[in-house]
Amino acid sequence: MDWKRKKIAAACLTGILALMGSGCSGYLPLTAASGETQEAVQRTAGNRLEAVRQLGKLRIGISADYAPFAFEIPGEAGGIPYGGSDIELGSYIAQKLGVEAEFVEMDFETCMAAVEEGSVDLVLLGMLPKSGREEKMDFTEVYYKPGRQVLLIKESQKGKLSGLEDFEGKTVAAQYGSLQAQLVAEQLPASYLELTERASGAVLMLRLGTAAGAVLDEAMARKVMKERPELVVSNAELSCDAEGVVGGVIKGETELLTEINAAIEEVVEENLYVDWLDAANEQAMMLQTAIP
Question: Is the pTM of this model over 0.85?
């Protein structure tokens, strides 16, 4: 998508670490079985949970440029044109509420504004509960704790890029809006951070030699290395104490948040999210390897 590429190219560091107050428009109105519009239902319903059930849909904001959490599936005929562990989670939550999941695809900042203003009921963005975000939404319970974060490099550079200091003055690629981009900004301040639309874009930059390293979750890095044996994990250690990935719900909608958290609790107890994430990693890497 050209507009996404332009947005990423223009992004600055504050775009990673802070929220922007951009508004949202262009949402198609929902209609309940009774014929009432979404706005009418939300005005008369006692709370958002009641409105969701009357409408029969849970509107979920996603940014489908963040594999393996959410990504587009090219060439899919019908059905949901997205894949990813957050897509599976959203579908599961909607099922538990007895409604359909409607995924609304937007860029990261617009998603954040959408849940603040109530244009969506929930956002699932592979998001960390960073300071400042709680002013705009209520966080769900943690549904995934990120694993070890690593620097992927070319095997030929393993002896030269073995410590964080070795990346000084070099370009390091990471996906826009991600934990990995935040870690580069915080722990490699003397490096040049290059933001990419997808994690696969960071890997491609590394393969082409336009970046010295690409920061990935270790689980995804392992899958990349299976397909690209010329790439290895650097001995340079990145520290990560992220408390976990959460969703965002419209602020003050306690009843809706309680039901969503009940579904998340089941997902965590049954280890479903880890299974979905593993499958999403496989699918994302199959799509990535289609890039020449």
Answer: no
